[in-house]
Amino acid sequence: MIRSSDEITGLEIKTGLESARHALIALFADDATVFLSKNDKPSSLWRILDLWCDASGAKFNKPKTVAIPVGSKAYRKQLIESGKLNPTHNDTERLDLFGIMNILHDGEATRILGAFLGNHVSNEHKWPEIVERITAALDRWNNHHPTMIGRRIITQITVGGMTQFLARAQGMPDKIKKQLHQITWRFIWNTPTGPPPIKNEMLYAPITAGGMGALDILSRSEALDLIRLQQMINTDPRRPLATDAANAVIYESLPTSERKNVPPRTRSKFFLQNVYKREKYTARRLPEDIRQMLNTSKKHDVYFNALQLSNQHKLELPVWHH
Questions:
Q1: Are 163 and 130 a contacting pair, CB within 8 Å?
Q2: Residue 133 three-state SS
């Protein structure tokens, strides 16, 4: 109903030459995320939701609804203070009148499908708690005096299992990677202090190569970065909207000096254009997870390469800054 409504336009995501796409709603099980533009009216949204609830017999949990302001710092401040998506709207469109009492301030986060989202929220937001849970679990396992093979399996269950989803969704800070890396090899070797008996590379090497095939948290994190990059550069029309949003953020991270020489209409596919290439991505405007992903791709020398292209594919390549 929301997708077919003329009253809800959603967030417009522009990426270079491609036509803009609109983010309207994301659904998973009992979790729903709705995207509203500043011109959309909360009354229109709740009218649709109330109608859907009446027809389906379901109930939308309004008291648990959280609003995340999206836009400039000035716009976010205005929304928090007035409670209105658009300052020109009358007071009947205030979010609190529809049960949305929690509008996140900068630095606050809310959980959406296991990830923690908000404005100016560090990627380290939930990691200390996860590290504590991992350490406590490994301490309990240590009381059972497992064998070295058992320790390898235990680290895959705990260190690997407790971190993979959040690392995939939001990336893992370098500080946490190093901490978990040390926790892993110390548990496997059962050495609370001092260096490992032999190089850790032997732990991570395949069993067929004389290693143990243990979890290498550093390599796994880089693999997850490359998988995210693979999705982000996907040009399939059915690609997730999040990939377009990430591309738009990268486009906006260009230095002001370069923006003057790169008109918006010449910005196409950043991975195929030299204007976006850096030895290292350090722009503060880039979120930490995107910056980390791009630096991982640079480290592993990911680039476009084709032995032979059809004429159709050649025509689809960027004309400018290639």
A1: yes
A2: helix
